[in-house]
Design a protein that fits this description.
The protein is mainly alpha-helical. It has a single domain, classed as Methane Monooxygenase Hydroxylase, Chain G, domain 1 (Up-down Bundle), CATH 1.20.58. Helix content is 76%, strand content 4%. It is built from 4 helices and 2 strands, in the order H-H-H-H-E-E. The protein has a two-stranded antiparallel sheet with strand order 1-2. Helix 1 runs parallel beside helix 4, helix 2 crosses helix 3 and helix 3 packs antiparallel against helix 4. The radius of gyration is 28 Å and the shape is rod-shaped.
Length: 166
Amino acid sequence: MNESYHALEEVLENEVKVYRTLLDLIRREKEVLISANIDDLNDNNKSKELAIVKLKSLERLREKAARDLAQATGANAENPRLLEIAFKVGEPYSTKLRSFHATLELLIKRIKEINDSNEALIKDSLRAVNGALGAIKDTLQPRQTYAPSGDIKRTEASGHFVSKDV
């Protein structure tokens, strides 16, 4: 059991580190979105992608270590749950596993909250950009007015970005 426990503990420590890194990156993403610096946003996105790849790899290792420890302690090895394993292993291992569970739960909750906030910020920014593009489009389209005969008459667009003179 000791070997299985230490393998799980090592993976959980690494997961906590990577989740903390991801939380920092998502917090930074909000600042980058507000500053609208495309290069910083691209760098931040690359770092987030790398953290997510690491987490996927660690998740596979965690699942294997949790299955091994669950089997060694008599917990459900098919669907091992950290709190169930913590209940089965006894002290001092139990307290450490509960601490990992609480830490990971809190980190994931904060990541989700900040990520949702960033998503709302992005959606608001896109609405503003689309509104500005719509306003520009309206100024470039010819205006419709009525001629003295009652027919609809198109007039020149009110503004030009490029001169038509050659």
